[in-house]
Amino acid sequence: MTVMPEMPIAYNPHSAGSAQPQRKSGPDEKNSTETRQFLLLLAFAYTAFVIYGSLVPLHFQPHPWEEARAFFRDIRYLNLGIGSRADWVANILLFVPLAFVWLGTLWHSKIVGWRIAATLLVLLACTGLSVAIEFTQIFFPPRTVSLNDIYAETLGAFIGISLWWVIGSSVTRWYLGWRAVEGPMDLAQRLLYGYLFLLFGYNILPLDLTISPVEIYHKWHEGRIVLIPFTNGQADLAQQFYGFLTDVLIWVPAGVLASLTARYDTKRIWLRLTAAAAMIEFLQIFVYTRVTDTTDILTGSLGSAIGIWLAIRWRAGEPAVKQAKAVGNTSGLIAGILLWLALIFAVFWYPFDFRTDGAFLHSRLTEATTRVPLAIYYFGTEYRAVTEVLHKIGFFFPLGILLALLAGKIRSGPPSLWKMAALASTGIVAGSVEVGQLFLPGKFADLTDWVLEIAGGWAGCALAWRIMSMRHQRVRTTPVIPAPRHSPWLFAGGLVLGLALLLLAATYIPEVPYNVRKLIGQEHPVLSSLALACAVAWIFGFPAWAARHLTTGSQRPEYLPAYLLLHGIVAWFLLRMSAPLEMIHKIVGSPILDWPWEWESIGRFISLFALWSVVSFGAGFISLRSWLPKASGFIWVWSVATLALLPVIYIVVIRYAATDNLTELLAGGGTPKTFLWVAAGLFMLALAGAQLAGALGSGMRVGTMRGVLWSIASFPLAYLALHAGFESYIIKYGQVFSAFQFLLSQDRAHYATPMELLLRYGFAHGTLLFAIAASQAPFLGHNACKSNIAQHQN
């Protein structure tokens, strides 16, 4: 980053003749201004994309205003099956970046009140935009108008806002770091992380996730889980070869970038990338429409090895002359360009069944010139659209790199002229591809494709020129961008406010399980929502604070039972103030022992709540163990306390229960085995939430991969454990249903179908996981622990 020259001291005529230094614009202020300008430009561009993409293919059909209003008032929530699961996720993901960048644009003030107001403004604006788009789609068939899109997009906006609160400052530093990279090694590391993120994200599309053993079995039975390599061949040999070739090529950049970072030896890099390919195939088991094939592990390993070999041939940090020789001479570059051009034309023009009759060409030309941009991507699945975009950009990106390298080797004439020639050549090749597709019946020549191909080629040129320019620049010091200091209690207050708004909104959404809606008192819903939000923050957040406090202070492990008891007592009083008493009695049962006041209900609740307390405290200790050695000692004490408390909890809650509302939900009426399965499922959820909180608490700089992997693994692991512990067949109210259906369905009259139940479980699990991580993030993580240790030392 270029260092700004220091402003001269200006003379102030209003002073007593003395020169007073004026306020200087420092680098932090300049960086903040540039970041806001970039985010503002990005926000306007993405908003235009959202609006335009929601109205494609722009088939305007006028309707009377009153008729449109009447139609919009009657829009309904559609019961979608597995085929529309990806549509729901796509609508969520569409509004996540929208809210994220707009909140970042308005985030410049350090006043907390302004940031809260900006958060609410962005949420309301995104919701209003979603409603406006749905209303406008009435005039643009064949767009579908439904409440599903509004709910999904509002949820996406909330997720985007929450992400900015959690990682907004880290993203800002990451963006500024791109502009301040010191050399090719630093740039390669950043590109590697971005490329792997893109690779993992693409391979779990279209996000029609499933953890149902039945669906996974059907997927295997239909041949979409291939365990023996090279046995999933296609009938067409050319298609089979193209599949193998692309599977190898997509891992070549990962090998090149990982090797250029020079952090590990080549063997470790190759093993890590092979493990990443295996992880992708494992994750694809849970993506219903994707094919899991062990062949992809081998092709990924081969592509990584090729990339590592290429990086060794062209090491970053060597003199420019040696690197030029490593790449090869001019004739070698020309040969590489010709080979890549042959590959591009072979891929985009296959199977070469050209037609030259005039009527056909006229119809094709008319169709290509009258088609609106992005219209061709609307007719198909989201996965297909993303595949085609990456297909166009990906094949032209290496071409841009090769053309830029060739332009850099030519010494005659001004360099800018050859750069323009490289950019123009990319456009000519892309235009030739699209013109050739006019003659091919199975292809579609499209202006959007031409723009995407040019964008891919120009991006390759820009990257090559950026790397080459680094070798001619002097070594610069990367500016240190200080990490912001956040008060955990300020974050907790914002979390409580956000939870209260969500809980209050949940009472008006009929799809929310009725057991959740009834937790909000109808007499004072606002106060009840606020108190229940405080209870949620306490239930999830206190174990993390206590675990950190115990492991960084002078407290002895014997204090752990006191913290467990305090956790349950405060949780009781918060829930007692927020939820109606009959809802608490539905869980712990009405009093039957004639004890005074509410002591029996308190005792039964604390006994039941102790199950969550022990698993959440243990998850906190295990997460802190990574950077606090003292936590290991508390794990032993926690293990002993858990073994002592579990029998007591089982006896009080199951054997001597005051109601069968809980025991009937457990398989076999609540055997010790099923009780332990439920405890294991809760522990998986608590541990995943704590690991994710540790990553968030460190600004996604420490433990990120561990947190993400635990979060992903918790979905199937917790589900399988709870499925083993819950009853599958309950006969009650004249109906047959499962424990999952009772807990997650909309109401007793609308028990969820298996597919809907799976979606509801995934949403509930993700919501709880996010709530746990958000509640514990201020108290877990590397940064929080270092700060707490310093306070105790002082």
TrEMBL record:
Residues 53-167, 194-313, 338-465 form the VanZ-like domain. Residues 11-31 are annotated as: Disordered. Keywords: Membrane, Transmembrane, Transmembrane helix. It comes from the Bacteria. The chain crosses the membrane at residues 38-60, 88-107, 114-135, 155-175, 187-205, 241-262, 269-288, 294-312, 333-352, 389-408, 420-438, 450-468, 489-509, 529-547, 559-581, 601-622, 634-654, 674-696, 708-726. This is VanZ-like domain-containing protein. It comes from Sulfuricella denitrificans (strain DSM 22764 / NBRC 105220 / skB26).
